[in-house]
From TrEMBL:
Residues 29-48 bind DNA. The keyword DNA-binding applies. This is TetR/AcrR family transcriptional regulator. PANTHER family: HTH-TYPE TRANSCRIPTIONAL REGULATOR BETI, HTH-TYPE TRANSCRIPTIONAL REGULATOR RUTR. Transmembrane segments: none annotated. It comes from Mesorhizobium huakuii. Residues 6-66 form the HTH tetR-type domain.
């Protein structure tokens, strides 16, 4: 007879994700995770197989969370350009300060190294761009690929903020996106 799980895989993956965000991807070991979640290293090896699989499952779990958050926010914001800004500002609030953002780039490095995780990133890009484009559907002559343009500007604004993080990231992103949308809407209004 098998013993009941004292923690679900989801709870363990949440502990693994916290460990990665606090100490970097290389800190994720079965020994450290065992201490963080209270299960034995042997139990964790039995569940996840090896360190590479544990890291991949942890990052897939993170993508699941980002997909859910994006869907929830996209459903809640108004279908307007201001709603698109609201969506991206809300997604920016999870980054925290510069140290947290920098650690997040190490996690991104892991996503880029793994073909399965890159596929998840590409799927999220498509979903996010579609959600942003839907916010412009009621505007006259929205630019082609407005969702991708806006998502790209958002990612760029996060990067530029990181070099001079003198204000809170969400405030920086909101200001940058407001200026971007104003420029796009002005250009669209001038179009014959």
């Amino acid at each position: 007879m098998t013993r009941p799980k004292t923690q679900s895989d989801e709870q363990v993956l949440e502990a693994a994700l916290r460990l990665i965000h606090e100490q970097g991807p290389e800190a994720l070991t079965f020994e450290r995770l065992a201490k963080a979640c209270g299960l034995s290293g042997a139990t964790l090896v039995q569940r996840f197989g090896n360190k590479a699989r544990l890291k991949q499952r942890t990052l897939l779990h993170a993508w699941d969370g980002l997909d859910d958050k994006t869907r929830t926010l996209a459903a809640a914001v108004p279908r307007t350009p201001a709603g698109a800004i609201e969506l991206l500002v809300a997604l920016s609030q999870g980054y925290g300060g510069i140290e947290s953002y920098a650690e997040g780039l190490l996690v991104l490095r892991e996503d880029l190294r793994d073909p399965l995780l890159r596929t998840r990133g590409a799927a999220w890009k498509t979903a996010l761009c579609n959600a942003l484009a839907a916010c412009f559907a009621g505007t006259p002559s929205p630019p082609q690929d407005i969702g991708l343009l806006m998502a790209s500007h958002w990612q760029g604004s996060l990067l530029w903020w990181s070099f001079d993080p003198t204000i809170e990231v969400a405030a920086y992103v909101e200001d940058s996106l407001n200026r971007f949308v104003a420029a796009i809407m002005t250009a669209a209004a001038r179009k014959p």
